[in-house]
Amino acid sequence: MGWKLILLLTLYLNSSPAFSQFGSSSDFPVASEFSIPVSPAFDLIGVNNALVARPGNIRDFKVDWAFKSWRLRPNLALQAQPVWEIFYNRRTLEKYQKSSLWMRTLSTLDLSAGTIEDDSQLRRLSFAAKITLYQQRDALLDARLFIESNAEFDERRRPVEESIDTLSRLIKLTPKSDKKDSLQLVLDQLRTQADILDLEQKRTNLEIASSYTKKFWNSSFVDVAFGRVFSYRNDTLLKLDLKGTGFAAWINASIGIGKKILITSLVRTVMLKDDFNGQQSSLWSGGLNFRYGSPKFNFFTEAVFTQTNNETVFANANVNLVQANSLTTSYGGDWRISRNVMLSYGVRVDYNRDFEFQTISPIAGIACMMR
């Protein structure tokens, strides 16, 4: 009877749709974010195409490349959400859906680090932490979206679990022999099949969430962030020549209007220090961004006003670590090339406090989700 069970289980495994689709299930991650926002580390140092960055929650690892200085040396930022990755990046959504509001908020904690080099070979390094205090919609939290897929998953998963339990008990009762080794082999195959079903379920749920986020791409968010930034020169391999340091805190809030409009606001304060003479400066910035489009293409225009207790900081490249000016306007857009890659582009125009033209800068960047 034992050998008949092995034969039946083997036939079941070979005929199972989930087992036969093993190769196709390796690409299970699907976009579940409403947008691909710029890394907070890049947002802090002002090298993204929009100074008023879109708030958002990525739930994955991301790399940003910036092309503000147009040099071949890489200007990049790395971004991750460790709490989500450790506690909630599971094959099913049950743990996340049953967690408390505090833990779901904590799961949006976002850590990033970035570095750029300007045309004078002055390099800036930034670190930032961001958390989402409010999100109008959370596709992964809406259990109604997944009722049908979860029911189908349970129907497919139950017989596999029952077979694993039956075979596990049989192995315990079977003396060590070649037959027991064969039973163990079949058990391993069953467990592999269970893992494949789990992966397919995650892929299915994320596909559902992806359709949801495309429909509501301009949902409202509120993000709060903190960061540190440094400017320095690498005169030698053993010496880090600090020029300026800074600490910043800011809040981004967005609200959607209809299906095509997103309005985003920014309030930021920055404390800067000139490491050469010890002089300290403070900056207060406020801005508004108007964005129009769709989840694939959208265009924006924005204005950011900055007040400071030391006007000379705007002209000091060593200390103006956040690329601020009295008035800055930007125009550009985002093109989501694929679910994992977004191209950002724009033109930034700076004015002094008398609204006289100062500089104009083209900016481009690429964001890549590491799925």
Which spans have pLDDT < 50 for at least 5 consecutive residues? 3-30
- The secondary-structure element order is HHHEEHHHEEHHEEEEEEEE
What is the typical, i.e. mean, pLDDT?
Answer: 83
The assigned structural class equals alpha+beta
Number of helices: 8
Strand order of the largest sheet: 1-2-3-4-5-6-7-8-9-10-11-12
Beta-strand residue percentage: 35-45%
Number of strands: 12
Cα gyration radius (Å): 26 Å
Major sheet attributes? 12 strands, antiparallel, barrel
Helix content: 25-40%
Straight-line distance between termini: 46 Å
Spatial shape = elongated
Question: Could you walk me through the main structural features you see in this protein, from its secondary elements to its overall organization?
Answer:
With 371 residues, this protein is α+β, with helices and mostly antiparallel strands. 29% of the residues lie in helices and 38% in strands. The chain is built from eight helices and twelve strands. It has helices spanning 2-15, 17-20, 40-45, 82-88, 94-98, 101-106, 147-173, 178-215; strands at residues 62-66, 76-80, 110-117, 123-135, 221-236, 239-257, 261-274, 280-293, 297-308, 327-336, 341-351, 357-369. It has a twelve-stranded antiparallel β-barrel with strand order 1-2-3-4-5-6-7-8-9-10-11-12. Helix 1 packs parallel to helix 8 and helix 7 (147-173) runs antiparallel to helix 8 (178-215). The model is unreliable at 3-30 (pLDDT under 50).
